Model the fold of this input.
Amino acid sequence: MYMITIDRDKCEGCGDCVGSCAQELLAMDDDGKAEVVGDLTECLGCETCVELCEQQAVSLQEL
Done:
């Protein structure tokens, strides 16, 4: 299982991480920032969301 964390102070709301998630675990919130919305047990640990975030706002940790 993996834990996805979004640093809201760093997130600029580009949505790249949201569009990259094959499991649709990320979405944009009402403030225009990325947030985790899905069941984290479905995370594949592919790190695509981490790699695409130019602001380094997304982190992934294996539990």
Summary: The domain at 2-62 is CATH 3.30.70.20 (Alpha-Beta Plaits). DSSP finds two helices and four strands in the chain. The first helix runs from residue 16 to 20. Helices lie at 16-20, 48-52.
